[in-house]
Fold this protein.
Amino acid sequence: MTRLDVISSYIKGDEKVLDVGCDKAHLSRILARRGIYSIASDIHNHIIEEAKSLTNDKLKQYIIFNVCDGVPNIDESEYTLVLAGMGTYTILDIISNSKKDFNKIITISNNNHDILRNKMLKYGYVVSSEEVIKEKNKYYNLIIFIKGYKQYTKEELIVGVNHKNIDLLKEKNNYLIKKYKDILNNKYIEELDDVVKILENYKY
């Protein structure tokens, strides 16, 4: 499955979705075919106009197209927020600038997941579940955040919490171990060495 298909699988039929940075509203069209309402939002007007042109009238009844920098002014309690196709720091900037609370946030990024898990605590969100996705030979982490607070162990920050695809998690971790050991062969970095030890000793 593609990243968008995996995101869709975590969205129930009675949810409404706000997709920020919607990239031509591909996710919104997938959801619309399931009869799920969404807001497809992007900072660039030309992307939203192209998204409209790619969407037929039957699907448009389920989608609101919106041009906005960050989170638009909505009743946040009704929406699941999706932040995909962007880096961890962009995700955190959007959350910190939104000044809104969401019952559920779905993120996908391919780097700095330990920072994302840790910083989301500052905004009142904890990890509910995760799933590694492999697309075009790249690994991505889908993380579901919900309201709450907990203290993570160092292992949980590095590896994650409640992973749903253990085989792919193992594959990704083995890839990272090899990658990080190659770096350590050239230059010893204590923090990176600690990460390798955590990944090597992780109990699946």
The chain is about 40% helix and 25% strand. The mean pLDDT is 94. Residues 134 and 140 are 6 Å apart (CA to CA). The beta strands are 16-20, 38-42, 63-67, 79-84, 104-109, 125-135, 138-147.
